[in-house]
Amino acid sequence: MTLKTGVAFILAGLSAWAYGADTRFSGVVGAEARIFTESALQGQNDFSGSLMIEPEWYVSWDNQSFTFKPFARVDSEDDERSHFDIRELYWQHVSDAGELTVGINKVYWGVAETQHLVDIINQTDLVENIDGEDKLGQPMIQWSMERDWGLLDLFVLPGFRERTFPGEDGRLRLLVDVDNDNALYESDDGDSHIDFAARWSQTLGDWDIGLSYFDGTSREPQFVTQVNNNVPVLVPYYPQISQIGLDLQATLEDWLWKLEVIGREGFGEDYIAAVGGFEYSTYGVFDSVMDIGWIIEYQFDDRDAIPAGFGQIEVSDIVSFGARLAFNDEQSTEFLLGLGVEVDNDAQFFSVEGNRRIGDDMKLSIEGRIFTGIDDNDPLSTFFYSYRKDDFIQITFEKFY
């Protein structure tokens, strides 16, 4: 989406507001601190702080609505993590025939807890978090229609967003610096290539099923090694791909079964990947109001290795174990504990995420990661090699308005 188009959308929203449309202003501001427990491999600091803001302006009138949600973060250490993005800026029209959305938006596909294989519309905002949950806004034209046979979503994606990467002074970065200013593309259209996607979904009894298709520029880059000023750097290369996806979720009493499968062509060799497992919930544990959800998932990839610019990184299947604790108290306290184990080596990663509401409009969150069992002498043994000294704890305070 061009600046001119974005200004036009904002002016349309202002016009609707001026004529008495229903309007809502909301948002969140936050402060974050990251503390790393070991000295960095490239000499970065062991502490970073940042401030963020994400306001939202929503206007509705007749069968139409306008949404504007920008995002900004300022980081004390990493210039690349200090960034601005438009998460949402779109106009939407709803009729009996269906729903039309035009502008910048975020769309989520998938059911799994540990990896979102089928989720391919939006680009990952990697400077926000390495878990892949944060996404950049994607320019799109989306048509949705719901009938007895299910929900059909069709997408035209007229602009590509490059993945963000931590900078030279950032932590949780790759072993070699990423030159994100000179990205390469398979398509001659570069980041102007028009992509297409579609998804059908339906609920059949206890089962939720989704079938998806994507054709266009891969959101996940490959890397090419180049030398800048006698220093090797990784240059992202974005190939053209086709991907079909399946996501399934079954709710069977206290069990929640999940599966995601993709088949992808064009990303080097063609391959199939899957993630599946279950979450089993136990209620009122220890004669209290607390609930625990026990999670097990298995991540499968039929490739032996993938190119990473400086070599072929081994691909290992991963078994993940987790426990979701809901205290069901007035402050909505929750914790998610996780352990991931690569089955072909000794690499492991531990994670903890928790949050607790403070009053009616504030929230305190904690997040931590530990990477262990990684061979210091084998940089091609695991994806987590670059993070082996980046164990950290993160504390975030947010205020909603």
Kindly report how far apart the N and C termini lie. 29 Å
Give the rounded overall mean pLDDT: 94
How many domains would you count in the coordinates? Answer: 1
CATH class: Mainly Beta
Quaternary organisation: single chain
CATH architecture: Beta Barrel
- Poorly predicted parts: none
User: Based on DSSP secondary structure assignment, what is the total number of beta strands?
Assistant: 23
- The SSE order reads HEEEEEEEEEEEEEEEEEEEEEEE
Q: Provide the helix percentage.
A: under 10%
Radius of gyration: 22 Å
- The shape, in one word, is globular
State which percent range the strand residues make up.
over 45%
* Sheet of most strands: 18 strands, antiparallel, barrel
Counting H and I runs of at least 4 residues, what is the number of helices?
1
What structural class results from the helix and strand content?
A: mainly beta
CATH topology category name: Porin
What does this 3D model show about the protein?
4% of the residues lie in helices and 55% in strands. It has one helix spanning 3-18; strands spanning 22-36, 47-61, 64-75, 83-94, 99-105, 138-147, 150-157, 184-185, 195-204, 207-217, 222-228, 231-238, 240-252, 255-265, 271-282, 291-301, 305-307, 312-314, 318-326, 334-342, 348-358, 362-372, 392-400. The two termini are 29 Å apart. 27% of the residues are buried. The strands form three sheets. The chain has an 18-stranded antiparallel beta barrel. A three-stranded mixed β-sheet has the order 8-12-11, with no helix packed on it. Strands 17-18 form a two-stranded antiparallel sheet. It has a single domain, classed as Porin. The chain contains one helix and 23 strands. The mean pLDDT is 94. With 401 residues, it is mainly beta. A hairpin with a 7-residue loop joins strand 3 and strand 4 (83-94).
